[in-house]
Specification:
Structural class: alpha/beta
Strand content: 15-25%
Radius of gyration: 16 Å
Shape: globular
Number of domains: 1
Number of helices: 6
Order of helices and strands: HHEHEHEHEHEEE
CATH topology: Rossmann fold
Largest sheet: 7 strands, mixed
CATH architecture: 3-Layer(aba) Sandwich
Distance between the termini: 24 Å
């Protein structure tokens, strides 16, 4: 699932010059944070955080943005994508299991004048249990813990757009969670390492 983050290209990003500059600055800062995290944490022990291809995700966010939409990032890590969503006009939130990364995300948001909000905890709502068609309950790197939705002040069904970057085998979990607990008509954006961002609505792939 290794995906390198990409610089924002003005010709690929239909936003005005001032907003383009802010988006680019967030991504550049986020990559510096990632490189430091990789040196200090990931080279010593496994950690599931890998940066997304920010250009592709940004394009996906632009395609679904509209006034008043509420956005949630599952596994928000350093917060780059939730911050990009906030700067694009979403009411943006992020959930991250690692509380150290939540603090990093809050600092990044503050540096870039973003109102994106972050909460430490699990992306699974209280009472949710996953199993596939064979009864296998494994959820990959999507760790369990206290649900973060109460800290956010919104249940999952309050969100219009939800984004995730699944490791191998985790996409069925995210799709099941959205189908069972998400708002009807809400969009689920999933980043694939080769196909880019796929958009699901009511469990069906759009486009």
């Amino acid at each position: 699932m290794a995906n390198s983050a990409a610089a924002v290209s003005p010709r690929d990003t239909p936003v005005d010059a001032a907003l383009h500059a802010r988006l680019s600055a967030v991504i550049a800062d986020g990559m510096e944070v990632w490189e430091r995290f990789d040196r200090e944490v990931r080279q010593a022990a496994f950690h599931p955080f890998m940066p997304a291809n920010y250009q592709r995700v940004l394009e996906g966010l632009i395609a679904v943005r509209a006034p008043g939409r509420r956005f949630l990032e599952w596994g928000s890590a350093t917060g780059v994508i939730a911050i990009l969503a906030d700067l694009l006009g979403f009411e943006a939130y992020g959930i991250e299991l690692d509380p150290r990364l939540v603090e990093v995300a809050r600092g990044l948001a503050a540096r870039h004048g973003s109102a994106a909000r972050f909460a430490a905890g699990s992306l699974f709502p209280a009472g949710y249990r996953y199993h596939d068609a064979t009864g296998d309950p494994r959820t990959g790197t999507l760790g369990h813990g206290e649900s973060a939705y109460r800290r956010l002040g919104h249940p999952l069904h309050d969100f219009d757009v939800v984004y995730g970057y699944p490791w191998d085998g985790e996409e069925p979990v995210m799709r099941d969670l959205m189908r069972r607990r998400g708002a009807r008509g809400a969009r689920l954006l999933l980043l694939d390492g080769t196909a880019g961002v796929r958009v699901y609505r009511v469990g069906v792939l759009e486009g």
